[in-house]
Amino acid sequence: MNMQQYDFGMIGLGTMGQNLVLNIADHGYSVAGYDKDKQKVDNLNEQAADRKLKAFEDLATFIASLRPPRTILLLVPAGPIVDAVIRDIKPYLGANDIIMDCGNSHFTDTAMRSGKLKEDNIHFAGTGISGGETGARFGPSIMPGGDKTVYEQLAPMLESIAAKANGSPCVAYMGNGAAGHYVKMVHNGIEYALMQLIAETYHLLKKYAGYTNDELHQLFSTWNSGRLHSFLVEITAAVFTQPDNNSNEKLIDKIADTAHQKGTGAWMSQDAMNVLAPIPVIDAAVSQRILSSMKKERVAAGVNTTELTISKNVNKEAFASLMEEALFTSFIITYAQGLAMMQNASALYTYETDIATVASIWRGGCIIRAGILEDITTAYRKEPELKNIMTSEMFAGTLQKQITAVKTVLKTAIDSGIPVPAYSACYNYYESYHSAWLPANLIQAQRDFFGAHTYERTDSEGTFHTTWNQTIQ
Ligand code: 6PG
Fold first, then answer.
1. Whose CA is nearest to atom 7 of ligand 1?
2. What CATH number does residue 464 fall under?
3. In angstroms, what is the span from residue 367 Cα to ligand 1's centroid?
4. What pLDDT digit, counting tens, does each position of 72-81 carry?
5. Which DSSP category does 250 fall into?
6. Are 87 and 120 in a shared domain?
7. For the CA atoms of the chain, what is the radius of gyration?
8. Are 109 and 197 part of one and the same domain?
9. 286 domain-assigned
10. Among 54, 146, 342, 369, whose Cα sits 20 to 30 Å from the Cα of 189?
11. CATH number of domain containing 103
C-alpha cells in the first residue's frame, strides 16, 4: 500500500465517526480512520468492502497515510479529550494541514484552539454536525466555521455527504472563528425547547384530555403530515407505538420521568446573557430538564404526585386542534428566539453569519429539521436585516391571530394544574416583544432609589438622578 494515499482522516471511530467515514467513502473519497480501540479499528476494516478506506491502530502510520496538506476530522467526546488528541497529533502535522472538530465542542474552546494552532499555520475548523447516527451515515446537516478558504477547499466533499433539502446540500459556511460550533449550540438549544414544547403538549393531551398512546400516535402522525411536519414530531408519533419487552404496556409508560442532558442547551442559556438575547423558551426547557431530574424532591413535595382526573367534558377533537395551533405558533416563536440570538452573537463575536443560510441548512438532516424552516429561510432572504422573524411579513399576521391559541392553552393548563413553562415562555416573549410599553420605568426608579444608578426621561435627553423621598428606615 502506498503511503500518503488517503484524502481524509478520521480520529474517533465510535458509531458517529464510523458512520461518517462510510458516508465519505460512499461518495468516492478515500478515508483513513484511527482509534485507540482495536475493536473499533477491526470493525471498520471489516466494513471496508470495495470502499477506499482503512482504519489504523497506530497514530503515526495513520497520519503518514494521509495526503498533504492533510485534513483530519475529529469525532471524539467534547472537552479535554479534544485537547489531548490535538496534543498527540500536532508533532506530525505541518503548515496548511486542517483539523476539523466535528464534535459538540464549546465555542470558546474552539476559539482558543484555533488561535493556538494558527501560530503553527494549522487550520482548525470547528464544525457542528447534527442528525445522530443515521444522519452521519446517510446525510447530516453540517455547520462548518473558521477560515473561509478552508471551507471552500472542503466544500465538494461536505456537500456530497450532507443531507439534501429540495436538492440543495445542508451544509454551508457558518462564519469566522468558532461560528460553526456556535450555530450548533443554538441548534441544540432550539432542539431542547421544541422537545419541551412537545412534552408539554403530551402532558395536556394525556392528563387533561385523556388521550391514549394509540390516539397520541395517530394525532402526532396527522400533525406531522401538516404544517407541523418535522423530525421531532415524526419520532414522537413513533414513540407511542413502541411495545415494552418486559410488560404488556407501551415502553413510554415504563420510562422514568427524569430527563438527562449533556449541557449544550445550558451553554446557550449561559451565553444568551452575554450577548443580551432573551431566549426564555430555551431557558425554560433547560430548567425543566433539571427540575425533572429532581425526582425525589418532586415526590416529597407531593401535591401533584396523585393522578390528575381527566376532564370529563373535553371535546377531544377541538382540543387537539387548539394544541396543534399552539404548538405550531410556539415552534415559530422558538426559532425566532434562537435565530435572533444567533444574530446578536454574530455581531458581537464578528462571525458574519448569514442567518438565512443557517435556517436553510437546518431544513434537512438535523434534529430540528422542520417544514417551517423553508418559510423562515424565505423570511430572512427577503429581509436580510430582519431583527426577528415574528415581525416579518411571512409571520407577523399569522402569529397575531394564532397567539390566542397559546393563551388558551395556558389558561387550560393553569386551571388543570399542569405546568407548561415552555408555552408560557413563548407567550410572554411574544407579548413582551410586542409591548410598546413595559413597566421598566419602575425598575429604573427603584435602581436610582437604592443605588443612584440614574435613569432616562421620556421628555428630555440625558441621564438623571433624583434624591428620592427617603421614608424607609
Ligand atoms: C444532534 C444532537 C446531538 C446532541 C444530542 C444529545 O444534533 O445530532 O443535537 O448533537 O448531542 O441531541 O443532547 P442532550 O444529551 O444534551 O440531550
1. 130
2. 1.20.5.320
3. 8
4. 999 999 999 9
5. B
6. yes
7. 25
8. no
9. yes
10. 146
11. 3.40.50.720
How many separate domains does the chain show? 3
Atom of ligand 1 nearest to the CA of 130: 7
CB of 77 sitting under 6 A from ligand 1 = no
Average pLDDT, the chain: 96
Residue with CA nearest ligand 1 atom 8: 130
Query: Whole-angstrom Cα distance, residue 406 to residue 341?
Result: 23
pLDDT tens for 356-409 read: 999 999 999 999 999 999 999 999 999 988 999 999 999 999 999 999 999 999
> Which candidate, 195, 139, 216, places its Cα nearest to that of 170?
139
User: Do residues 156 and 125 share a domain?
Assistant: yes
- Quick check: CB of 262 below 6 Å from ligand 1? yes
Residue ranges making up the domain that contains 461: 440-473
Residues 106 and 233 occupy one common structural domain: no
Q: Is 40 a catalytic residue?
A: no
H-run or E-run covering 219: helix 213-224
Ligand 1 and 365: CB distance under 6 A: no
Q: What is the pLDDT of residues 417-469, one digit of tens each?
A: 999 999 999 999 999 999 999 999 999 999 999 999 999 999 999 999 999 98
| Alpha carbon distance 140, 431 (integer Å) | 36
Q: What angle is formed at CA 312 by the lines to CA 306 and CA 315, rounded to 5 degrees? A: 125
Same-domain pairing of 358 and 462: no
